Amino acid sequence: MEKTLAIIKPDAVERNLIGKILERIESNGFRIVAMKRTQLTLPVAEGFYYVHKERPFFKDLTTYMCTGPVVLLVLARDSAIAEWRKLMGATNPKDAEAGTIRKDFAIDIEKNSAHGSDSAENAAFEIAYFFSQTEIQE
Ligand code: GDP
């Protein structure tokens, strides 16, 4: 079983989409092995997106992630990293395939409703950034 870090982003929490997104997660073979609803602060968001610090949208992205509460999740299944990215769909909802979370729920390329780790190395960093080992029950 592989683990990945997922976030239900502020735009989705704000529009009461937590339940709909969790339903898709559970019905697509993932187990939710840790979960919390919280509000990120700017330093926390900046630390989380450290790998993107040189990208032109870094300031917009980190500011947006602090505009409202988020739901942090650790998801487990075989190939969890790739499978969760597939279920989320492309970064820009305009490019996302039918039936994906971003196609069905996202507002635009920034307010795209969900986050997912993009590599095993980043998944390990991101899970440890938000959860202690005792908060994760497999
Ligand atoms: P992801 O792995 O699919 O989430 O995409 P990236 O790693 O490329 O980008 C991280 C996050 O930054 C995305 O999920 C978006 O919320 C945001 N983002 C990506 N591209 C842009 C952009 O061109 N402009 C803005 N404002 N935000 C962006």
Summary of the model, kept short:
The protein has seven helices and four strands, in the order E-H-H-E-H-H-E-H-H-E-H.
Please give the alpha-carbon distance between the first and last residues.
9 Å
Quick one: biggest sheet?
Answer: 4 strands, antiparallel
Mean pLDDT over the full residue set: 98
By helix and strand content, what is the structural category? alpha+beta
Low-confidence parts, pLDDT < 50 over ≥5 residues? none
The shape is globular
The value of Rg in angstroms is 14 Å
The level of helicity is 25-40%
Strand order of the largest sheet: 2-3-1-4
The topology string of helices and strands comes to: EHHEHHEHHEH
Number of DSSP helical runs? 7
Got a strand count? 4
- The portion of residues forming beta strands comes to 15-25%
Characterise this structure.
It is a single chain. With 138 residues, the protein is α+β, with helices and mostly antiparallel strands. The protein is globular, with a radius of gyration of 14 Å. Helices cover 39% and strands 19% of the residues. It is built from seven helices and four strands. It starts with a strand and ends in an 8-residue tail after the last helix. It binds guanosine-5'-diphosphate (GDP). Guanosine-5'-diphosphate is lined by residues 57, 60-61, 91, 109-110, 112, 115, 118.
